[in-house]
Amino acid sequence: MTEDGGAGRTGAPPLVVLEHITKRFPGVVANDDVSLELRPGEIHALIGENGAGKSTLMRVLYGMYPADGGRILVRGQEAKIASPRAAIALGIGMVHQHFVLVDPFTVTENVILGDEDGAILDRSEAERKVRELADTYGFQIDPRATVEDLSVGEEQRVEILKALYRGIDILILDEPTAVLTPSEANDLFGNLRELKASGKSIVFISHKLDEVLEIADRITVLRRGAVVGETKPAETSKATLAEMMVGRPVLFRLEKPQVEVGEPVLSVRGLRGEGKLNGIDLEVRGGEILGVAGVEGNGQRELAEALIGLRQPEGGTIELEGTDIGGRSVEDIRNAGVAYIPEDRHEQGLVLDMTLWENVVLGRHDDAEFSGSGGVLFIKKIKELASRLVKLFDVRTRSIDVYASTLSGGNQQKLILARELETDPRLLVAAQPTRGLDVGAIEFVWRQILEQKGEGRAVLLISAELDEIYALSDRIVTLYEGRITGEFPPDAAPEELGVGMLGGVREEAVG
Amino acid sequence: MATVTAAPEQAAPRIRSDRLERIAGQALALLASLLIALLLGAVLIVAYGESPAQVYGAIWEFSFGSVSNFGYVLAIATPLIFSALAVAVCFKGGLFNIGVEGQYLVAMVAAAWAALNLDFLPGGLHVVGVLVVASLGGMIWAAVPGVLKVKTGAHEVVTTIMMNGIAVSFLAWAVNFPLKAQEIPAGQNVDLRTDVFPDSALVGDIGTTFGVSRGAHLSWLLLLAIAASIVVWFLLRRTRLGYEARAVGSSPGSARAGGISIGGTQIKLFLISGALAGLVGMQQILADRGYLGLNYVAVLGFTGIAVAFLGQNNPIGIIFAAILWAVLSRGEVALQIETEVPREFVIILQGILILSVVITYQIAKRRLAARQLQRAGAVGSLEDSAAAEDIEGLAKEDR
Asked: Which residues, numbered 431 to 450 in chain A, qualify as contacts with chain B under a Cβ-Cβ cut-off of 8 Å?
């Protein structure tokens, strides 16, 4: 943040100018008179909460939506961008959150797809070009690798290469780090700096403030479809940005309720399974939040799924208040008092094409309260519960009769929290509970988790976000290759945790 | 904490219109498809040198021209309703039961056995017994792929196709050996078949009461089929099993994490589907013919897949879809009697209908998704709502 990077070329004429762009969807103004300038060789962050209009604005620029008002100038010329193809012709490329790659194809085949020269593919020539392109910008990737064998971070590089291969100067990245591990995000930032140095302009859509402050040259904040301000990392702070985004001060450190730590609720001993869990020992007490920190892919998912009964442990014990629940069915474990916030709310949390009221009883639909012994659902009772929970958890929806798919990510997560916490659980297993959520929703989820602690419940928090671990945990353990590699107090330095997350302190902690 | 922005109660009236909108959209799509099929069909008719007005007029006449004609249509629709329901029940749980075909063949054998051997049952109980045995036959045949799917992961499409093949041979064997007719009445054809069932095993005619000719064989199986549709609707929408089935069908991961047993649910669905499939063949052997022979009406199970699709797997929609299909099938008779157009024309018409429906339902779905997206946007969740992703996905398909 010491240097002002490429944004120093303020003298250069802007590459793209968006003037007074307005985009309406019936009932909502997604972009309200938004103006924006993109200069050569800058990384321009576009931030705002979910629904603030960031993606819509960029989709207008990328030719996916026609604007209802305003105009777009590219290199000083007014441009009518009617399709992504037209955008690419103007040198504008966009990488979406969800990648569009052909899995069985190689990197090269994916990059040139749709832009092949001639009828006969010159594979080695294409490979050479792709390799050259990758080398130019310092992309670590094998042009011959098959996409299905790549990590998410590598797939993203392929998407960016696809855009670069088509000769774009302006690269739009929609929430590029949402799917990346911290180290992959760092690699991406390295690539972006290379691109910037070579004169490309990058629009970086995000709502993660730390990374925006790290990578951006300029920051434009959107709220409810309108620009609320433009700033530079050196002139602002995380708190200021958050307040601009949300419209009110946001607390990054919430008050932890003071409660007496009770008896052990969860005791895990020597838990093993599928090569991903290699003898995990941990204990969580009532009124305590145990944070499990670690780089993703070190057994987090397997640990959470073993605890809720979605995976059969191959060894070790899982005790809930002294009762062994290891290997029991999900139904039994839920009935014993375990609630679960899955890391993937679409895969394991909600049935997207069922209504909110139907989702609110998923897992409890066979309680005597909600269905009779004859198997008939008590719909009125379920709807009453749903109406109550939707209010209580501030789920923004126009009705409980709409499909869960119509909710925003934050509201979907609130719905899951509402359902899981309503059962008065003994133990809450929360896996990456704020993944993909915006600042306001994160604060809400954090408050709810802290409230569980306040009620004397035990919480096992599994998170790849150190911020989150610090904000909530009473004790922190690090997970590395399926083992607990260290235990730390909540005020341990990130460097100490970092060593644990890489497996380093195991000997020390044990010996 | 922020105040609640939308009170669910207030929005309730609007929701009812949402549902109406969806159903109206699908009905409109079906109507449009029918129109497309008729228009393309007209081109064919003209190419054949006949008048479309006359051909379609004949089909209309033979279906709606008289009470009796409509009775014929309903009799054709009866087995299709059972068949489509059997397909839909499985489909809701994410299962593709191609095996309705085999299940109803086996059920006809079971029913024939019961019709010939359970005649000791008093009064109306005999026919009830026959229907129960038929359903059991269908269930047993459906249970095999169900268990294989759950225990070994064998895909139901493959196993049910195999079971269909076995069923065809099983029926042939049954009428060749154990159930072969003891005496063929003089002057009747010598097709392989069972003895004629006793009257107590047959289902009663309801058509004559309304002036439908006896030849239509419109039986109270139609009422049973409509009742079955309502029961299936209730099962899917109002019961625990239906809830679990829909959850398993649309999001197995979330269903499992909610403690629902996926395998258990799927086996139950296969059994229910098999029981419904078991009734498909009853119209032909208990109302129409009174015996089971090698000249049985086949492919009703496969037709059920088409009808279920036309009805969008909605139990009530299936009733109407079955009637529409029956009207076209009835058209075959009209073509033979009234025109020079070959009866296969109807099959072409049905094929075009299905193809156009694939397209128009998709269009209706997109428009609905777009509206949902707009409304979701009105609550301020435009960008990352899953509806937006849907639209985006569809936009990608377009490119």
From this structure: 436
Please give the Cα distance from B121 to B330 (Å, whole number): 36
Angle of helix B8-47 versus helix A379-392 axis, rounded to 10: 120
| Percentage, residues of chain B above pLDDT 90 | 75
Total Cβ atoms within 10 A of residue A388: 14
Nearest CA-CA partner of A27 in A503, A406, A308: A406
User: Which whole-number Å values give the CA distances from B172 to A206, B104, B252, in the listed order?
Assistant: 67, 14, 39
Is the CB of B383 inside 8 Å of chain A's CB atoms?
Answer: yes
Using a pLDDT cut of 90, give the percent of chain A over it.
60
Q: For residue B132, what are its two tokens?
A: 């129960």
Q: How far is A237 from chain B (nearest CA, A)?
A: 24
Tell me the CB-side half-sphere exposure of residue A100, using CA atoms within 13 A.
15
| Contact criterion met (CB < 8 Å) for B372 and A402 | yes
Sheet holding A170-174, edge to edge: A92-95, A170-174, A201-206, A43-47, A218-223, A226-231
- Closest A-chain CA to B7: A398
Contact B364, B339 (CB under 8 A): no
Give phi and psi for B232, each to the nearest 5. -65, -40
What is residue B25's predicted lDDT score, i.e. its pLDDT? 86
CA distances to A112, A136, A162, A187, B59 from A129, rounded to whole Å, are 10, 11, 12, 22, 64
Could you read off the pLDDT of A131-172 as tens digits, one per residue? 999 998 888 889 999 998 888 788 899 999 999 999 999 999
| Beta carbons within 10 angstroms of residue A476's beta carbon | 25
Say if A389 is an interface residue toward chain B (CB within 8 Å): no
CB contact (8 A) between residue B374 and residue A28:
yes
A507's tokens = 């000997």
Picking from A23, A25, A55 by the largest number of B CB atoms within 10 A of its own CB, the best residue to mutate is: A25
Q: What is the CA radius of gyration of chain A?
A: 25
Angstrom distance (rounded) from CA A377 to CA A66? 46
Residue B143: closest CA among B97, B83, B93: B97
What are A283-318's pLDDT values in tens digits? 999 999 999 998 878 899 999 999 999 999 999 999
Q: What does the pLDDT read at residue B242?
A: 96
In this prediction the ipTM stands at 0.82
Q: Which residues are CB-contacts of B365 (< 8 A; sequence separation ≥ 6)?
A: none
Q: What is the pLDDT of residue A506?
A: 45
Residue A248: what pLDDT? Answer: 81
How many other CB atoms are found less than 10 A from the CB of residue B141?
A: 30
Contact list in A for residue B381 (CB cut-off 8 A) is 50-51, 396, 406-408, 410-411
Nearest Cβ partner for B8 among A342, A351, A390: A390
Q: What is the DSSP track for B113-142?
A: HHHHH-TTS-TTHHHHHHHHHHHHHHHHHH
What pLDDT does A208 receive?
Answer: 81
- Using one digit for the tens of pLDDT, what is the confidence trace for B295-347? 999 999 999 999 999 999 999 999 999 999 999 999 999 999 999 899 899 99
Q: In whole angstroms, what is the distance from residue A338 CA to residue A350 CA?
A: 17
Q: Strands of A264-273's sheet, edge to edge?
A: A277-285, A264-273, A315-320, A323-324
Identify whether the C-beta of residue B81 lies closer than 8 Å to the C-beta of residue B70: no
Beta strand pairing call for A458-463 and A289-293: parallel
Q: At A75, which amino acid appears? A: R
The pair of structure tokens assigned to A35 is 């103006």
Rounded to an integer, what distance in angstroms lies between the CA atom of residue B120 and that of residue B222? 26
Q: Max Cα separation, chain B?
A: 89
Return the residue matching tokens 């094998």: A142
pTM of the predicted structure, to 2 decimals: 0.79
Amino acid A495: pLDDT = 80
Residue B395: is its pLDDT beyond 70? no
